Amino acid sequence: MPDRPSPKDATEAALFDECWDAVLSYADLCTAGSAVAHDLAMEAFALGVREVRAADAGASRGRRTPRLPAIPLMLTAVRTTAAAWEAEGLGHRLDPDLRLWLNSPQAARYPGPPLHRPLALRALRDLQEADAALLWLTEVEALPLVVVARRLGLDPAAVSGELDQVRALFRDRCRRDHLDTPMDAECRSYARLLDAVTRPAAAAAEAPEDLSRHLATCVGCAEAAACLRPHGGALPAALAGGVIGWGGLAYLERRRRAAEVRLGPRPPVAASGEAGDGGGRARVVRGSLLAAAVALSALALTVSLMPFDGKANDGARGDGGRQSVADPGILPLPTGPSTGAAPAATAAPPSSPAPSAGRPTATGTASAPAHDNPDPEPQGTASSTAGEDPPAPASSEPAAACRVRYQVVNEWTDGFQATVTVTTARPLDAWRVAWTFRDGQRVGQMWDAEAAQSGPRVTATATEYNRSVAAGGTFAFGFVADRHGANSTPYGFRLNGRDCAVA
């Protein structure tokens, strides 16, 4: 193999030490042999050095322009060089699949108008360079936080908090850039809902059915959804696909394996979803790769897209000074039950039925007739009638046959998002949860349950996939609702006609 490049000065030496391994790894993906990969890497590295020098020269004259951190900048130089080879008649040296991609509309987005470029690329470039480097080294290069802290000169004890703030800031940049993107009326109508259901505390919610259908067919909104979930495993693939383009997922897997070879396997992720040294990144990346591959095949994207089933916490921050922004970062659209708590209250008198949903944990024993509904077919309780809860047995059950946790996870001027988590004392093979709003709130979208509302009384009914719940099991569902003025905690929670205690 030809010799490696010889750095001409300290700038090139630093770039070589930091980036050469990554550049050669991606160049190898783009070509058919090691010698050709080396040629591509050499030419791309020279292009990247020129871009860094041009940016530094502009900064010295007071015209600093945003640019990517060193490694993603060099990787985009590989993509640019490969495109130049294809245009110059040297495409036979490239991977055939890459050649197809280079002649596709997806590839044309990268050098195209800024507002049409991939969202992850735009948002990463908008960050301060040090913040973007922290995000890239941790999420894509799969380096432990202690290693990243040492490389960037950060306090190892504080780097985990810094990363949370950067994730939140990246999410906020993605949200703003998504709203700035030219889009049609349908996409614009979903932008607010997409923002609402991907905020940090939406840990028990799936995407509403109509939003899910839209994301399955709309490349731009699906790309935004992947970027608006800074935790939960989708971010590495969203970054790699959005910034690098073709081969982003394969590069991601290579870097994960390379990090494991150099540093050894990572410790398991902590219960909160984070480890002090970035542990558990390999598991997160593997999950995101699988989910991203499925989404890519459906959407023909190189941006990965996980199903809305991750779990995460999020923080918020502003620009360089790490100050909080008014709009906190948002989470993946999870499917598990919510873990947040709501204020304690006593159950109010029963009223009409209420919808409920969540993931079942086991099979129950009660039987239930089906009733018609669009999309999933929810099941009612065996003894209930439409719009009416069955009476509770006089003495066969304790006063509280269930426990409810109601949590408002996000709130804005005229609306809010909430989750309802229910623990049942008895096994169920169908369920309905009812409650009464105090302040005229109106449910708009509900996921993991079918919603019905009559006046202030709401009913949530199980969907086909989550009807069965074991004794002592928990299920959850979420919704977005309108409000005008106050937003008090509702009362009168009942499960299949039996009073529930509000925890």
Largest sheet: number of strands, sense, barrel closure: 9 strands, mixed
Number of helices: 15
Could you tell me the number of beta strands? Answer: 9
Ends distance? 67 Å
Radius of gyration: 26 Å
Structural class: alpha+beta
Widest sheet, order of strands: 4-7-2-1-9-8-3-6-5
Strand content: 5-15%
Q: On the 0-100 scale, what is the average pLDDT? A: 73
Elements, N to C (H/E): HHHHHHHHHHHHHHHEEEEEEEEE
State the share of residues found in helices, binned by percent: 25-40%
Shape: elongated
Task: Note poorly predicted spans.
Answer: 267-398
Oligomeric organization of the protein chains: single chain
What features would you highlight for this structure?
single chain; 503 residues; alpha+beta; nine-stranded mixed beta sheet; 9 strands; 12% strand
Structure explained in plain terms:
This protein has 503 residues and is of the alpha+beta class. 40% of the residues lie in helices and 12% in strands. It contains 15 helices and nine strands. Strands 4-7-2-1-9-8-3-6-5 form a nine-stranded mixed sheet, covered by helices on one side. α2 (34-60) packs across α3 (70-87) and α7 packs antiparallel against α8. The relative contact order is 0.11. Mean pLDDT is 73; it is low at 267-398.
Which helices and strands occur, and which strands form pairs?
Elements (H helix, E strand, L loop, with lengths): L9 H21 L3 H27 L9 H18 L8 H7 L2 H4 L10 H8 L2 H11 L5 H8 L6 H22 L4 H13 L11 H7 L3 H9 L7 H9 L4 H16 L17 H19 L102 E11 L2 E10 L7 E5 L5 E6 L2 E5 L2 E5 L12 E9 L8 E5 L2 E5 L1
Parallel strand pairs: 1-9
Antiparallel strand pairs: 1-2, 2-7, 3-6, 3-8, 4-7, 5-6, 8-9
Helix pairs in contact: 1-2, 1-3, 1-14, 2-3, 6-9, 6-13, 7-8, 7-9, 9-12, 13-14, 13-15, 14-15
